[in-house]
From TrEMBL:
It comes from Takifugu bimaculatus. The keyword Ribosomal protein does not apply. It is a multi-pass membrane protein. SMART domains: 7TM_GPCR_Srsx. This is Histamine H2 receptor. Its main location: membrane. GO terms for cellular component: plasma membrane.
Length: 357
């Protein structure tokens, strides 16, 4: 009895954190003009997806976990499983889109505004939801995920008041490759490339800036060496913060979802009749759900503007800024492109998002 109470409290906490955190992200963007820009559309989409997961899926998953009983019938059971697969897939694929967006921002900062246009953002989001629907409602409602080709949880042979997610080899391989393994490799590659570019630019600026300052002072015969150029130690600290943030992003994603998809793949290849009967399945499933509770922290609270908006909202103050909307980037003099890229790469306030300001 005590273990059930503890489990219920833990699952309720995950649900509350998922709902509350993602509501806070949406409110922060709505209430703060500084955050209302195209870049943060991906963050709002991620928050909305995770919020729907917390409202429409997690309560029923907790019901199954605590009682092992499904009183809502087979039709709603299949709808619930389809929603679960669709929203988890959309959340993962949105994380992939965010990584690609960040890759474009740091590799092509001067062209970023012309590359990431509203219609391209809309196409990216539509693609995310199309793939999510294609691997969830369509195969589950058509029975393509079962061994015998019939719709799961329906028919005389299925036990009443049970809700099972059946698997076969083609469905498991297609679903896991499209929704996890390929996105995981793509995210690792993009963030690894971002980290390499950050380090390369830092070394280049650190190596060239002292020479430029010395030659400037020699030409002007000035003994004053005051400058606003960041010191080597400051740049090293910024690089370290960016590295830690990158590690947190990719590390949380891997820790939360890799165990589930490994077990999901193994059970699917074995065509296990009821994966939920495996004790480890519920553990790794809820570990994956936890990623939706962590996303508001990892993709919101690590950004300075989001942190400020969170603080104002939690203090019951509407965020207000003197600047309205997102200011366009100022034109840079020749030779300042590398410095701008370095600032974007190493400034901790811009990870994992690029500030709208």
């Amino acid at each position: 009895m005590l273990s059930s109470v503890v489990l219920g409290v833990l699952l309720s906490l995950i649900i509350l954190l998922t709902v509350g955190g993602n509501v806070l992200v949406c409110l922060a963007v709505c209430a703060s003009r500084r955050l209302r820009c195209l870049t943060n559309c991906f963050i709002v989409s991620l928050a909305a997806t995770d919020l729907l997961l917390g409202l429409l899926v997690l309560p029923f998953s907790a019901l199954l976990q605590l009682s092992d009983d499904w009183p809502l019938g087979p039709v709603f059971c299949n709808f619930y499983i389809s929603m679960d697969v669709m929203l988890c897939t959309a959340s993962i694929l949105t994380l992939l889109v965010i990584s690609v967006d960040r890759y474009l921002a740091v590799t092509m900062p001067l062209r970023y505004a012309s590359l990431v246009l509203p219609w391209r953002v809309a196409v990216a989001m539509a693609s995310v939801w199309t793939v999510s629907l294609a691997v969830s409602f369509l195969p589950i409602q058509m029975g393509w995920n079962t061994v015998n080709g019939t719709v799961q949880n329906q028919g005389p042979g299925h036990p009443e008041r049970k809700c099972h997610f059946e698997l076969n080899r083609p469905y498991v391989l297609t679903d896991s490759l499209l929704t996890f393994y390929i996105p995981l490799l793509a995210m690792c590659w993009t963030y690894f490339r971002i980290l390499l570019i950050a380090r390369t630019q830092a070394k280049r600026i650190i190596r060239t800036r002292p020479t430029c300052i010395a030659s400037y002072n020699c030409r002007n015969r000035s003994s004053t060496t005051t400058t606003s150029v960041p010191s080597v130690s400051a740049m090293t600290l910024r690089e370290h913060k960016a590295t830690v943030t990158l590690a947190a992003l990719i590390g949380a994603f891997i820790v939360c979802w890799l165990p589930y998809f490994i077990l999901f793949t193994v059970l699917g290849l074995k065509e296990h009749p009821d994966p939920s009967s495996v004790p480890e399945y519920s553990i790794v499933l809820w570990l994956g759900y936890t990623n939706s509770a962590l996303n508001p922290i990892l993709y919101g609270a690590l950004n300075k503007d989001f942190r400020s908006a969170y603080t104002r909202l939690l203090r019951c103050r509407c965020p207000s800024y003197s600047d309205c909307g997102c200011r366009p980037s100022p034109k840079l003099p020749a030779g300042k492109g590398a410095e701008k890229r370095l600032q974007m790469l190493l400034s901790f306030r811009n990870w994992p998002l690029m500030s709208c300001a």
